[in-house]
Amino acid sequence: MYVIVYDFGTSSVKTCLFRVDSEVNIVAHAAASYGLYILDNGGAEQDVEEWWQAICSTTRRLFLQTDVRPEDVGGMAFCTQMQSVVLVDEEGHALRRPMSFIDRRGVKEFNDCMGKGLIKVSGCSLYKLLRNVRVNCAGPVSVRDPVWRYKWVERNEPEVFRKVYKWLDVSEYLVSRCTGKIIRTADTAFATFLYDTRKGREGWNKGLLKMYGIRPEHLPPIIDCTDLVGGLTDEAARDLGLKAGTPVFAGGGDATFVNIGAGCTRPGDTHIYVGTSGWVSTFMDYQAVDIFALITGALSAKPGYFNYYAELGTAGKCFDWVMNHLALDEIGVYLEKTPVTDDVENTYTSLYDYLSDEVSKVPPGADGVIFTPWLQGNRCPFEDSKAGGMFFNLRLDTGKRDMIRAVLEGICYHLRWMLECEAAKVKTSDPVRFVGGGALSSVTCQMLADITGRTVETVNNAQQVGAVGTALVVAAGIRKVDVLDLARRLVKVSHTYRPNPANKDVYERNYRVFRKLYKANAASFHVLNS
To answer: 258, CA 20 to 30 Å: which among 118, 176, 394, 482?
Structure first.
């Protein structure tokens, strides 16, 4: 069985052709980038035509790499970034550029609605927060939450708002463009925090819509991630180079499918993801919330299950930053292997591999340097859009390798902090599965094991684990089998890393200092970043 999955990240799509039989194998893949437009007013936008051109070009390139033909494809789906705001008209055309999940323009809208009231929790009206928590164990407690971007358009772009037919996320926009049908999946509906998760009441909650001033007519009908939406239209098929009528499944958000691709399909199974963002997630058969640490139980791809989910907005993005600003001007970087000379060019095929080797030369603890990975504010276990990244404890003998290692360790310290917050509320697993691009480095895998004190397991196709999970959902839908059982059978552990006791003391020392840095500097962040 062949399945195409479009894995949409913040700035690029990876289109994968999978063969799913007794194993899950990537037969071919192709990638393309698109813009992320950062605005002076805190906005972050993208372009739907760039998205479409990216998936069209990558789909056609798949079939140049393999003997598989378009008519052999049994189904397709999208696995995308979540909490974007895509406003469309009745024809499904975008009325403005989509607003990315990192868009922070809704500060006034947030403050006007949630910042008022005599009693507050995490800066939010306790009354409104409790109403939300009662309905879905969550709430729009961050200026980045999509409801505030919707409200921003209503206030600031009334001419656009008057034309709105439906409010979609990334995956639903792309499904609409492929099938001509406008729907919402339950997982992205939940991510608006307007969805009722109570058994027997699942769907848009009228009370929450009224409380936040959301127009019910803007919200599409809701289906499950595993549902078949329809066949590929003639126009979309011509653009993509696929067969008209190819089944298009609902798909959904990236966080929804990662646990399935990681093989974390039993209640209590915990995985850690590091890509552009990062998170700690525990698979559960009930919903939980921690309103103080800002952790909620998001919907799983399978109805009745949840992912208890704690997010770090900039994880791998911090490593991108350090590569661009600390590494590229000093350390030799070679992105492709060349057989010409027997030197660094012949040894290292990627910058990430090279830097991983370089930081392995620095002792654990980065010679006392600590980095905070809050380059775009932070959400969990504290919500503060003004928080910033910093290097703490630089000295005259500090080198760039120390600083680069400190960045990786800082990401791991924050992941441990979120893991501990989860463990305080629910049962988490040992071992944990480590997935995403960060799991490609054995240095980072061992570092995560040492810092968390947990055994760390990786799986095949770790970087494409969301796409793997989506492919399994599509395959399960075609075969009419349980997706959790299918994932348990097909997802295999590739490597295991156990904590090194020799590194425990230095990491414990640094972690204690790391935990204190936000509280000690919160007021200064607000002075500098207001």
So the answer is: 176
Provide CB contacts within 8 A for 215, sequence distance 6+. Answer: 164, 209
Q: Tell me what pLDDT residue 124 has.
A: 80
Q: Which of 373, 383, 148 is nearest to 276 (CA)?
A: 373
Max distance between CA atoms of the chain, in angstroms, equals 70
Q: Supply the pLDDT for residue 328.
A: 67
CATH of the domain at 197: 3.30.420.40
How distant is the alpha carbon of residue 514 from its chain centre?
24
Q: What is the DSSP letter of 463?
A: G
Q: Are 410 and 373 in contact (CB under 8 A)?
A: yes
Give which of 296, 277, 278, 275 is closest to 287, Cα–Cα.
296
Q: Which residues of the chain register pLDDT less than 70?
A: 121-122, 328-351
Give a yes or no: residue 481 inside a domain: no
| Adjacent-strand bridge partners of 306 | 284, 299
CA dihedral 480, 486, 490, 492 (to 10 degrees): 160
* Domain boundary, last residue among 222, 250, 278: 250
Regarding whether 337 and 228 lie in a shared domain, the answer is no
Q: What is the pLDDT of residue 343?
A: 43
Residue 127, in any domain of the structure:
no
pLDDT at 212: 95
Report whether 473 contacts 1 (CB < 8 A).
Answer: no
- Position 380 scores a pLDDT of 92
